[in-house]
Design brief:
The protein has 50 residues and is an alpha+beta fold. It has helices at residues 13-22, 36-43; strands spanning 25-28, 31-34. Strands 1-2 form a two-stranded antiparallel sheet. The longest helix has 10 residues, at 13-22. This is ArsR family transcriptional regulator.
């Protein structure tokens, strides 16, 4: 199931465009779908300071 851009709030147009450019999401019609690369980005560990 895909999400429309209004369901991606608070992501703005620039954030959505960046995710498309990185291949994390793809657009099909009026909906956005997460890709395998997007799933991997969600699972990636983000280093923290401290």
């Amino acid at each position: 199931m895909g999400l429309s851009s209004d369901k991606l709030y608070p992501a703005g147009k620039q954030t959505i465009a960046a995710m498309l450019t990185k291949g994390w999401i793809e657009r099909n019609g009026g909906s956005y779908f997460i890709t395998e690369a997007g799933q991997a980005a969600l699972r990636a560990l983000i280093p923290t300071k401290g």
